[in-house]
Amino acid sequence: MTTNVFDHQNFFTGELDQLREEGRYRVFAELERKAGHFPQARRYKDGATQDVTIWCANDYLGMGQHPKVIEATCEALRAYGAGAGGTRNISGNSHEHVLLEEELADLHGKEQALLFTSGYISNWAALSALGGGIPNCVILSDAGNHASMIEGIRHSRAERRIFKHNDMVDLEKHLKDIPPNRPKLIAFESVYSMDGDIGNINGICDLADKYGAMTYLDEVHAVGMYGPRGGGIAEREGLMDRITVIEATLGKAFGVVGGYIAASKALCDYVRSFSSGFIFTTALPPAIAAGARTAVRHLKDSEIERMRHRRAVSKVRASLKAIGIPMMDNESHIIPVMVGNAAKCKMISDVLMDQYGIYIQPINYPTVPKGTERLRITPSPFHTDEDIAKLTKALSDLWSHCALSRAVA
Ligand SMILES: *Cc1c(COP(=O)(O)O)cnc(C)c1O
Fold first, then answer.
1. 275's torsion region: left (phi>0), alpha (psi -120 to 50) or beta?
2. What are phi and psi of 106, to 5 degrees?
3. pLDDT tens, the chain, 409 aa long
4. Relative to the CA of 192, which ligand 1 atom is closest?
5. Are 275 and 129 in contact (CB under 8 A)?
6. Beta bridge partners of 31
7. In angstroms, what CA-CA distances link 404 with 324, 329, 338, 398, 408?
8. Are 301 and 228 in contact (CB under 8 A)?
9. Measured distance CA(316)–CA(348) in Å, rounded
10. What is the greatest pairwise CA distance in the chain?
11. Which of 148, 223, 367 to mutate to test ligand 1, by most ligand atoms within 8 A of the CB atom?
12. CA 70 to CA 140: how far, in whole Å?
């Protein structure tokens, strides 16, 4: 036994203790989602199980359990087997991948789409390749951007300028400052996940035109949800053709897993050819691609899920508003219930789960700024009036119990 060497175990436990002290240690609920009964799930804890209702899923429309999606996935699984067999580059490119890319390109009105293993990887890989490959590129990044974009931009080593969240004046100030002939890319989101606010796509496109910048839009929380065919906020606002790159996920409203970009043929081919995060990783299983394509196709034609979803969101908002639960106002489907204290937020979440069978993960720093800790509620078309009544009663009890202030209705 050598002495004086770095005690790595001690390092790990020390860091974790620090997280616990700050109330930032992450605890995951152990759940079993029940296909056909979404949003109901079974929870495992300390050797016991409990039935719970999920109120914080990003499978916003319950497509992960849609019979057509399950059937297409099973059918493809039986037909093609479990895995892709390799990277797209070597032996892993399947007909299903190509079909899904065509479906996605069509969804966004773009020449081409390119699949990745997740939305995170698509942002990381595409922004790394674009920012790193385009000579002397400057990336203008919204201050509210998701970690996957931030990491991609960092990895690209391009010059990065962060503009104030959704602030056109600040963005223009930066753009003015950069020589006209320097390549520029503006990276931003449509629906911001934690506040549920919506990016000024039109304003950003106008500035991009004026200063000759490319636009890169993350529609992760909007695809399947907004626009007549589920193409996202840019589709709803008729702006898809003004966006250079649309990025999104197959894991949220489409209910499966995977990510993609949609853009011009040349841009997609460039990323396909130069991006390490695309080239050197095993492709999505063809069965997953088949399931995702079914979800995308279904939501292109079907309005009922979006309609029921909107109805559930406004019912929940109205019900919580009536008892003065403070919510952040926004125009999206995300309902941030503000607690403003990490310990209370975690405690409320624990009691909701243990005593009311309601699962809402607490959202604390660093996901959101300190003092804005919250419960992020995401209704689905499958939450019933009874579910909503139970949620309202539980939050009312807890607001009284924790002496939290209520908003004046
Ligand atoms: C979840 C998320 C991603 C990553 O997508 P995954 O498919 O889950 O990896 C990217 N951008 C935003 C804004 C997200 O919220």
1. beta
2. -65, -40
3. 667 899 999 999 999 999 888 878 888 999 999 999 999 999 999 999 999 999 999 999 999 999 999 999 999 999 999 999 999 999 999 999 999 999 999 999 999 999 999 999 999 999 999 999 999 999 999 999 999 999 999 999 999 999 999 999 999 999 999 999 999 999 999 999 999 999 999 999 999 999 999 999 999 999 999 999 999 999 999 999 999 999 999 999 999 999 999 999 999 999 999 999 999 999 999 999 999 999 999 999 999 999 999 999 999 999 999 999 999 999 999 999 999 998 899 999 999 999 999 999 999 988 999 999 999 999 999 999 999 999 999 999 999 998 888 887 5
4. 13
5. yes
6. 43
7. 10, 18, 10, 8, 13
8. no
9. 18
10. 68
11. 148
12. 40
CA dist 267 and 270 (Å) reads 5
Within the chain, how many helices (H) and strands (E) appear?
14, 14
- Sorted by sequence, the CB contacts under 8 Å of residue 344 that are 6+ apart come out as 373, 402, 404
Q: For residues 228 and 226, what is the distance between their CA atoms, to the nearest angstrom?
A: 7
Q: Are 378 and 57 in contact (CB under 8 A)?
A: yes
Q: Residue 67: what residue type?
A: P
Sheet holding 335-338, edge to edge: 335-338, 374-377, 362-363
Q: Give the span between the Cα atoms of 364 and 26, in whole angstroms.
A: 9
Nearest-angstrom CA–CA distance, 37 and 327: 28
* Residue labelled with tokens 């529609």: 219
> In 298-369, which ranges are E strands?
335-338, 358-359, 362-363
| Cα 165 to middle of ligand 1, angstroms | 18
The H-or-E segment that residue 243 falls in is: none
Order the strands of the 358-359 sheet from edge to edge: 30-33, 40-45, 48-54, 358-359
CA distance 207 to 216: 13
**Helix-, strand-, coil-residue percentages of the chain, each rounded to 5:** 45, 15, 40
CA of 207 from ligand 1 middle (Å) equals 26
Give whole-number Cα distances, 270 to 112, 113, 160, in Å: 12, 12, 21
What residues does ligand 1 touch, defined as CB less than 6 Å away? 118-120, 123, 146, 148, 189, 193, 218, 220-221, 249, 251, 259
Ligand 1 mean position, distance from CA 48 (Å):
32
